[in-house]
């Protein structure tokens, strides 16, 4: 009788494991493609102005200063509205907020089609930053509510790769539109480019609103048993404390928030350097023509995305994230430093170093956020994630300005890239030693989670 009872228990456990795996697989296929595509389109909308610049500044008679200020105003809106937008997610739910802000930035991108003056350009770039500000931290919180442990890290690395594929989208569609649609219906090519690259965001925002569930318990495509199993698994593998956590300090007085902000700032500085200057690097390395440069950038980004997923798959375990995040940052620092010495002599080495840099920054950022959710309490998590994102994204404004200033002063990008490589190396120090301070200050119950995270 006892043997029969044990057999039934084992059989039930096996069935539950299969149901849980099936539930997570179903969630991945229904959630991940939508969020991946939206993140890719978010980067398209913030970055395609660099491609449009080839025609826009001439048609509108913008100076480089006007263009630079407008491009940078995106980050002002992004920094100011990250926290307020993310707070809305707790009140109205992830589905409504993520889909709503995606639709808002999509419509703002459509409006870029009709820019005819500097003030309009400034206003729309600022609004674009306002609407995109809450999306990335919102997805971080959303993944935390849907996936646990290594599964969440792997899925988040796939989601984050969308930013790398945005360059592929801009390069392949932007060049075609500028070349073949210029003058169609009396519209300049750059206007058609903004319009063509914005419409998919508006459509996908509607799809997201219809298909994204807020939490597992509201997912109608899961059975009642699957919903319960997912929620139980999330509780068993929770890496953050609940809202009654011991850390009641105000956000601005919490050293963990500032240490994590410093680490993320260093990661984003390297990301901005690679994204904003990789076409220039490839041109100086000997890649001739826009199409060849576009294909090279696309290839480097694709290899970088694959490397990102590989690094995160190996280092996604809770006890490895901090170390592998630091290792990814080391790869990025090496890439930035080595580029200075090879991009005028070897096109092949330049290409593969760029791919290494994209892999390092992608994996570093993905692992950073999966590590960070384990160091913030329930209250700090909701506000801390967007706050860290907002503070660190100042790097997106500072990095291009500093590299451009160094180029104007010295006549070369070398010093600027070495400077950013040093910033990235500082990030490694913060990850290895600053984050360790967070671990030591945590309660004994939580320390096992973060000791080697």
Automatic annotation (TrEMBL):
CDD domains noted in UniProt: MFS_ExuT_GudP_like
Alphabetic keyword roster: Membrane, Transmembrane, Transmembrane helix, Transport
PROSITE patterns hit by this protein: MFS
TM annotation in the entry: 29-45, 65-84, 96-115, 121-144, 156-178, 190-212, 256-277, 297-316, 323-343, 349-369, 381-406, 412-435
Keyword Transmembrane helix carried by entry: yes
Superkingdom of the organism of origin: Bacteria
Domain Major facilitator superfamily (MFS) profile: 31-439
Topology in membrane: Multi-pass membrane protein
Compartmental location: Membrane
A GO cellular component entry from the record: membrane
Keyword Cytoplasm among UniProt keywords: no
Single GO MF annotation: transmembrane transporter activity
The name this protein goes by in its record: MFS transporter
Species for this entry: Caballeronia catudaia
């Amino acid at each position: 009788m006892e043997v029969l009872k044990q057999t039934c228990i084992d059989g039930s456990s096996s069935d539950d494991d299969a149901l849980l795996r099936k539930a997570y697989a179903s969630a991945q296929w229904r959630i991940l493609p939508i969020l991946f595509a939206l993140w890719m389109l978010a980067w398209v909308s913030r970055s395609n102005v660099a491609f449009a610049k080839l025609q826009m500044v001439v048609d509108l008679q913008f100076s480089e200063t006007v263009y630079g200020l407008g491009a940078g105003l995106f980050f002002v809106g992004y920094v100011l509205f990250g926290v307020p937008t993310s707070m809305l997610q707790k009140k109205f739910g992830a589905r409504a907020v993520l889909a709503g802000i995606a639709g808002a930035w999509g419509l703002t991108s459509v409006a870029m089609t009709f820019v005819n003056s500097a003030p309009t350009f400034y206003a729309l770039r600022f609004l674009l930053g306002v609407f995109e500000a809450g999306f990335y931290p919102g997805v971080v919180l959303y993944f935390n509510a849907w996936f646990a442990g290594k599964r969440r890290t792997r899925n988040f690395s796939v989601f984050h790769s969308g930013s790398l594929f945005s360059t592929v989208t801009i390069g392949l569609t932007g060049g075609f539109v500028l070349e073949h649609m210029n003058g169609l219906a009396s519209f300049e090519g750059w206007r058609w480019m903004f319009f063509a690259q914005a419409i998919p965001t508006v459509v996908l925002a509607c799809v997201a609103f219809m298909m994204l569930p807020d939490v597992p318990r509201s997912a109608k495509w899961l059975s009642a048993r699957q919903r319960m199993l997912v929620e139980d698994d999330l509780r068993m593998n929770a890496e953050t404390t609940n809202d009654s956590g011991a850390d009641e300090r105000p956000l601005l007085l919490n050293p963990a928030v500032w240490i994590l902000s410093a680490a993320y700032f260093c990661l984003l500085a390297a990301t901005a350097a690679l994204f904003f200057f990789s076409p220039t690097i490839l041109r100086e390395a000997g890649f001739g023509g826009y199409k060849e440069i576009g294909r090279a950038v696309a290839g480097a980004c694709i290899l970088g995305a694959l490397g990102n997923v590989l690094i995160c798959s190996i280092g996604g375990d809770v006890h490895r994230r901090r170390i592998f995040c630091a290792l990814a940052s080391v790869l990025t620092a090496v890439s930035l430093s080595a580029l200075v010495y090879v991009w005028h002599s070897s096109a092949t080495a330049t290409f593969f170093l760029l791919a290494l840099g994209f892999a390092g920054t992608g994996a570093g950022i993905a692992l950073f956020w999966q590590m960070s959710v384990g160091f913030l309490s329930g209250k700090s998590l909701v506000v801390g994630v967007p706050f860290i994102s907002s503070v660190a994204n100042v790097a997106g404004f500072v990095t291009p300005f500093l590299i451009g200033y160094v180029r104007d002063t010295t006549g070369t990008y070398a010093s600027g890239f070495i400077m950013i490589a040093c910033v990235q190396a500082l990030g490694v120090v913060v990850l290895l030693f600053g984050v360790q301070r967070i671990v030591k200050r945590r309660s004994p119950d939580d320390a096992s989670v973060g000791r080697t995270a």
